[in-house]
Amino acid sequence: MAHCTKCGAVVADNAAFCAGCGAPQTASGAAPSAAPSASSGGATASQPMAENVAGLLCYALAWVTGLIFYFIDKRPYVRFHATQSIVIFGGLQIIYFVVFGFGIAGGLAGLGFIWLFYALVDLVAFILWIVLMIKAYQGERFRVPVAADIAEKIFGKA
Fold first, then answer.
1. Residues 84, 132: contact at Cβ < 8 Å?
2. Residues 151, 155, 156, 158: is their CA dihedral positive or negative?
């Protein structure tokens, strides 16, 4: 028995068209190429990205990917991580600008303290970035205490 080259349905050996989908059939009635199955595990054009992967990617480029995923993905789990990423890393970006701006404006007197503070904030941001990506990939809604509350107030509960 031959199979449709488009949908894989069984067709008669001499059929010109598939009875199931109407696709024209070749004279040989060749078997269909390897069509993606539902159990293949990989995402196709019709399947969305897994929530844990999307949650991880919300943190990948700090607040930028958080903002992107906030607008393109409406799933609550992904929106939670997107809003938290925007608040945490957007807030840290603002802190960097404020501290560095005051450091330049303050002259060289407070420069050592400002660079120490900058290095400390940078280290905390890096550790938090890694932890949040791991927790999001594991499927956890890890809440950074102050930032998650601020994100809920600004963007609403996700």
1. yes
2. negative
User: For 68-84, what is each residue's pLDDT tens digit?
Assistant: 999 999 999 999 999 99
Contact 76, 158 (CB under 8 A): yes
Domain boundaries, the chain: 1-41, 51-155
Which residues of the chain are under the pLDDT cut of 50? 29-41
User: Residue 113 and residue 35: Cα distance in Å, rounded?
Assistant: 62
Contact 70, 155 (CB under 8 A): yes
Query: In the block, which residue shows the tokens 């330049």?
Result: 104
Strand, helix or coil for residue 2: strand
3-state secondary structure 80-122: HHHHHHHHHHHHHHHHHHHHHHHHHHCCCCCHHHHHHHHHHHH
